[in-house]
Amino acid sequence: MMATKEKLRLCYISNPNSPHTHRWVNWFVKQGHSICLLADVPAQQPWPEVTLIDLSKKFYAPIIRFPIWTVWLRRFLRQWQPDILHAHRVNSAGWLGAASNFHPLVVTPWGSDVFLQPQHSRVAKFLANYTLKRADLVTVNSQTMQEQVIKLGAKKSTIKPVQFGVEVDIFNPVPPTTMEIAAWRHKMGLPVTAHLVLSARAPRPIYNINIVIEAVAQVLKCFPDTIFLLSSYNTDLSYKSQLDELIKNMDLDSHVRWLPQTQDRSELAALYCMSDVVVSVPSSDGTPISVLEAMACGRPVVCSDLASVRELITNKQDGYLVPVGKSKPLAEAICHLLDQPELAADLGRVARQVVVQKYNYELEMEYLQSLYRGLVPFSA
User: Fold this and answer.
1) Residues 229, 184: contact at Cβ < 8 Å?
2) Considering only CA atoms, which of 379, 370, 380 is closest in space to residue 5?
3) Rounded distance, CA 21 to CA 291, Å?
4) What range does the domain containing 371 cover?
5) Same structural domain for residues 298 and 372?
6) Is 203 helix (H, G, I), strand (E, B) or coil?
7) Could you tell me the pTM of the whole model?
8) Phi/psi of residue 292, each to 5°?
9) CA angle at residue 303 from 119 to 121, to 5 degrees?
10) What is the 3-state secondary structure (H, E, C) of 308-374?
């Protein structure tokens, strides 16, 4: 189907519970495009702004769901007639997109789907190659990711750098008022003077939240009033149970808080601004949006020393980098920043400028829209 200049029909395959999916899709909703989202994991809440189809409600079983979903997807695409099919993540969503034989197909890797899974499974590596070779456009958020998708089979001519970006007007260094901060701390049961360290990554094994928890005890030796705030979206329930047990066994209940999930961008920005340090220490990553958001708010960040993250952060210039999987260096970096608030503020100011100059959400989405329009003639 050919689209008019004013409006596109966009079909996404993605995790409907991820804030990344919400941010990406909602921008195109606001531009007036027709949107259909196919959820390749069970949807946890409704999304009235888009046509949301939960594939798990049609059929959901290990492995064999994919051929069954593929048959359904081919029939659905013939009926709905999108201008673009866009799969977020190479695994699962990308496999489906490639198997549908629909073009133009856009594939956006997220990180572990190209950095970790193809290294651990021959099947995942084969399917990544199958998916990336069939894509008309592959968007990447770092040079490291570009090199990796080429190794996995993507054609260099199909690759374009597109950042998820940050809404720099929402995520800015202006903190909430003193009364708002006091009210929020009271609601969360936080002492007025407590130092706050935020981990904004989901409770999933790849994000090493257990390492963050192990660092808590070490930080408390230097700053005994510190409280760690942990996010609770897109939760791996089994892993979270392990984390709760670790918190209990280390007697850290009074120094750790699980934050309620929120899709409100302003609330999230306020949370960053109220935090003294923001940490992100996964085993693998692309360009982490939560880190960019914290940087845009002028917060000092401590992150895993990964190749993709080094494209974003220069150690001790606009953030701190620490070895993967080690709690002691993480704790030491947190303590250093808590001990030197002027240094932390300087890092935050530099970090804000990095995001404003290179990771502006609005500009990135406008660029992606132009890439979509460039692909539409191929669907005629």
Assistant:
1) no
2) 370
3) 17
4) 9-165+361-379
5) no
6) coil
7) 0.80
8) -60, -40
9) 10
10) HHHCCCCECCCEEEECCCCHHHHHHHHHHHHHCHHHHHHHHHHHHHHHHHHCEHHHHHHHHHHHHHH
